[in-house]
Design a protein that fits this description.
single chain; 567 residues; alpha/beta; Rossmann fold; six-stranded parallel sheet; 24 helices; 16% strand; flavin adenine dinucleotide binding; lyase; EC 4.1.1.47; Tartronate-semialdehyde synthase; tartronate-semialdehyde synthase activity
Length: 567
């Protein structure tokens, strides 16, 4: 068997695992890997900050379902990646971070940029490991990919001392292949019991969490809903797993990213079949209200997730797709059916009557009007990325999603600055797709330097900024908790930030919108400009200063007050 540089073996593994692009920043301690990547056919985007690399890998992974790869050198490169690892861990996204390290003989001597990144990363990864023997390297990478994909997906980190990277090993890529990833099938009696409970219910709901998206179970979800005639809700992470224009769509429940009809439909239900959902606190609100007298079936691929928030009436450990396939088979085998048409009609009535207005023509622009135009202009196959703040709440409430993996949000960790690098990752995965990043003015500036990456590598997408100059959600939270508003002030005067000029400084373009009537034309201009220039284009929308969530929903209330009338 031939001897080859060990980093060549790593590149062979990456290619065979489906990696066609990586994101990272070179440095002395990782240069052997970069040398092996040269001419490998794997594209590499050099980032401006290692956190940006992790978010790009995250966006790529959410889009493809594969394992995204981020690369950094030793020391601060690894510590800069921690936020991205946490984000991926919180949202069950499989990414691999590769870090260089000082030579093995110097690790105990506080060598330059030698940090124990493995111990630093362990709390926010499924597996973090340093490889000390060159012969172990390709097999460690194989196990890293399997670990990232197995069970509840998540991030992994491999740390490589420089001296290990510089060695040769015996290796033949033709004799190696990816390790199998087992899928967890449900125990048949639990499927039968779940069907019993469904048929006993008068007002059941199917609740699709992020596990439906990650498990590629959206087609089985729709098939079951239509076969039984049962309404479907989604969580924020499950948004897009069921088409929101479907007659059986029953909205979203929650204290922030929700619809009024979704909350009411949920409160009137008597059974919830939750598929791959975490029961996050912004979804459930007060657990006593959320649980009520209804029964719960909780299906999740991760055994320890069941019962973590509250004990369900039935817990089923299973891959969501395999569970839905088994449940469909059980329904057909029994010829089971119930007439839930009255319940479906009730949900439809709530959808028609418990709505929020979005047709405002006032100045300053109200955020719902922005999402009205987004829904009208962009086709269903558009990919959207968005992060944390009032605009995440508005997006959950007003933006419609039709396809899985096309509405991407950093839901649990909520790092500011996620959108621009994530959009680069999405566009790198789907070069022919239209990609839109919906951002806030504050989040925009956290990793704005990654615009240079998009400009350098011709990665076009549209950025729609909702700019209230205000830190609205922070002000609201502080007011609710302490009865005062935060002292943070982001005023935009001669000392403030001109976001359009920031775009221009990176060789990109943008326009500011202050009138509702300008929205549609400006968004259409941005779509055309992104294609023409092959670079990001900004639409900065000046929206009203607002220190409450859209339409007065309190963050500590499950049932919201009546909507605010048109201004």
């Amino acid at each position: 068997m031939a001897r080859v540089p060990v980093m060549q073996a790593v590149v062979d593994v990456l290619r065979s695992e489906g990696v066609d692009v990586t994101f990272g920043c070179p440095g002395a301690a990782i240069l052997p890997l970069y040398a092996a990547l040269e001419g490998s056919g794997i594209e590499h985007l050099i980032v401006r900050h290692e956190e940006g690399a992790t978010h790009m890998a995250d966006g790529w992974a959410r889009t493809t379902g594969g394992v995204g790869v981020a690369i950094g050198t030793s020391g601060p490169a690894g510590t800069n990646m921690i936020t991205g690892l946490y984000t991926a861990m919180a949202d069950s996204i499989p990414i691999l971070c590769i870090t260089g390290q000082a030579v093995s003989s110097k690790l105990h001597q506080e060598a330059f940029q030698a940090v124990d990144i493995v111990d630093v990363a362990k709390p926010v990864t499924k597996w973090a490991v340093q490889v000390r023997e060159a012969a172990q390297v390709p097999w460690t990478f194989r196990e890293a990919f399997r670990t990232a994909r197995s069970g509840r997906p998540g991030p992994v980190l491999i740390d490589l001392p420089l001296d290990v990277q510089q060695q040769e090993i015996e290796w033949d890529p033709a004799l190696d292949a990816p390790l199998p990833v087992p899928r967890v099938a449900p125990h048949p009696p639990s499927v039968e019991r779940a069907l019993d409970m469904l048929l006993e219910a008068d007002r059941p709901l199917l609740l699709a969490g992020g596990g439906v998206v990650l498990g590629d179970a959206h087609e089985q979800l729709r098939e079951l809903a239509e076969l039984l005639g049962v309404p479907v809700q989604t969580t924020l992470m499950g948004k897009g797993s069921f088409p929101e224009d479907h007659e059986l769509f029953a909205g979203m429940t929650g204290i922030q990213t929700s619809q009024r009809y979704g909350n009411q439909s949920f409160l009137e239900s008597d059974l919830v079949l939750a598929l791959g959902a975490r029961f996050g606190d912004r979804h459930t609100g007060d657990l006593d209200v959320y649980r009520g007298d209804r029964r719960f079936i909780h299906v999740d691929i991760e055994p320890t997730q069941i019962g973590k928030v509250f004990g369900p009436d039935l817990g089923v450990v299973s891959d969501t797709r395999l569970f839905l396939e088994a449940l469909l088979a059980a329904v057909r085998a029994r010829g089971a059916a119930r007439d839930w048409s009255a319940w479906v009609a009730r949900v439809g009535e709530l959808k028609r009557t418990l709505t929020r207005p979005d047709d405002y023509d006032t100045v300053p622009i109200k955020a719902p009007r922005v999402y009205r135009e987004i829904n009208r202009i962009f086709p269903p196959e558009t990919y959207f990325v968005t992060a944390i703040g009032l605009y995440q709440i508005w997006g959950g409430q007003f933006q419609t999603a039709h396809l899985p993996r096309h509405y991407q949000v950093c839901g649990q960790a909520g790092p500011l600055g996620w959108e621009i690098p994530a959009a680069i990752g999405v566009k790198s995965a789907r070069p022919d797709a239209e990609v839109v990043a919906v951002v806030g003015d504050y989040s925009f500036q956290f990793l704005v330097e990654e615009l240079a990456v998009a400009a350098q590598y011709d990665v076009p997408f549209v950025i729609i900024m909702l700019n209230n100059e205000y830190l609205g959600l922070i002000r609201q939270a502080e007011g609710d908790a302490f009865g005062v508003e935060t002292e943070v002030d982001l005023h935009y005067d001669e000392h403030g930030t001109d976001n359009v000029r920031i775009m221009e400084a990176y060789g990109c373009s943008g326009r500011r919108v202050v009138e509702p009537g300008e929205l549609a034309d400006t968004i259409e201009w941005a779509r055309e400009e992104a294609v023409a220039t092959s670079r990001p284009v900004l639409v900065e929308v000046m929206v009203e200063r607002q220190a409450t969530t859209a339409r007065g929903v309190r963050i500590d209330a499950m049932v919201e007050p009546e909507p605010v009338p048109h201004a």
